[in-house]
Design goal:
Elements (H helix, E strand, L loop, with lengths): L3 H15 L4 E6 L10 H8 L4 E7 L2 E6 L4 E5 L5 E5 L9 E7 L4 E5 L6 E5 L2 H7 L11 H9 L5 H6 L9 H10 L13 H23 L27 E5 L2 E5 L9
Antiparallel strand pairs: 1-6, 2-3, 3-4, 4-8, 5-7, 6-7, 9-10
The structure holds a DNA duplex (16 and 16 nucleotides).
Length: about 260
DNA sequence: CGTGGCTCCTGGCGGC
DNA sequence: TGCCGCCAGGAGCCAC
């Protein structure tokens, strides 16, 4: 699930449910998710304090505490947040539970345990340490063009590379390439300036649309490839059967008619 | 620099 | 039904 638009939604969900409540206790059920901190230090930072506000960078959610430190959540492939009021509603695969004084709870749910939890005092330090590029929803055209003009490899892995721009993953990169009629293996240096500009514009638009629809719990537009990104799925424009390819180790779905390979 | 392969972990699905 | 292999919206590491 969690690429940039989903993480944006998780942030809004946390804002809506869990800010300014005193944290009574914390249950770390899967300590292996903790990266730069141990259980007691995490408890020491959270217990007795409150979540104040959230920020997002790429696929990371930064949850600021009133002690100025910041809890950092990464959702891996299957991470999610679940707020609930009664302990019998505790979800399966809750790896990390925050128990508030008002007896409600926020669970970090993650069946596959690819999620990661960090605690740090400065968001900027973390971004630097992880070498994350600018957030894809906030990138500007000039930096986009400067970076992509120098690239040589395939476009899809470049879009997914968190060191270039952060937030785009396998699913949304497929959408961006579908909307711009670009084959996922196209080398970046074979794309015209106009095409690069189009990719930039469409990236912004796709991310904004997905964020908007996520928040409203609405489906993506019918013209999108994502809802058709299933076995035997068809191109929403032509009814042609979608094909798959391994690109950068991930499965790309694309329309062989709309997205011709440039050789 | 860029790519491909492997790893972490768990559940769901299709095939035999 | 049971078992097996494969796949899954992430990302770090290593070898070429």
């Amino acid at each position: 699930m969690p690429e940039l638009p989903e993480v944006e939604s998780f942030g809004k969900y946390l804002d809506k449910t869990s800010l300014n409540k005193k944290i009574e206790s914390v249950d770390v059920k899967s300590p292996e998710l903790l990266q730069n901190i141990d259980i007691s230090a995490l408890k020491g930072n959270l217990e007795g304090n409150k979540f104040q506000f959230t920020k997002r960078h790429g696929k990371y959610l930064f949850v600021y505490l009133d002690n100025k430190n910041c809890l950092i959540l990464h959702f891996g492939m299957t991470g999610n947040l679940k707020y609930y009021k009664k302990s019998e509603e505790e979800p399966s695969y809750g790896r990390f539970l925050v128990n508030f004084e008002d007896k409600s709870h926020l669970a970090f749910v993650d069946p596959r345990k690819f999620g990661k939890i960090n605690l740090i005092s400065k968001m900027e330090d973390f971004i630097k340490e992880k070498k994350l590029g600018p957030d894809a929803a906030r990138m500007d055209f000039k930096s986009f063009i400067d970076i992509f003009k120098k690239r040589k490899g395939a476009i899809k892995p470049a879009l997914m590379n968190q060191h270039i721009f952060a937030g785009i993953g396998n699913i949304y990169s497929d959408e961006i390439l579908f909307q711009t009629c670009v084959h996922p293996k196209t080398p970046v240096n074979k794309l015209s300036d106009d095409k690069l500009k189009e990719i930039f514009m469409v990236t912004k638009e796709v991310l904004e649309t997905a964020i908007d629809r996520n928040l409203k719990h609405e489906e993506l537009p019918d013209s999108y490839i994502i809802p058709n990104r299933v076995k035997n799925g068809k191109c929403p424009n032509s009814d042609v059967k979608l094909e798959t390819l391994k690109v950068g180790g991930r499965t790309a779905y694309f329309c062989p008619e709309c997205q011709k390979e440039i050789l």
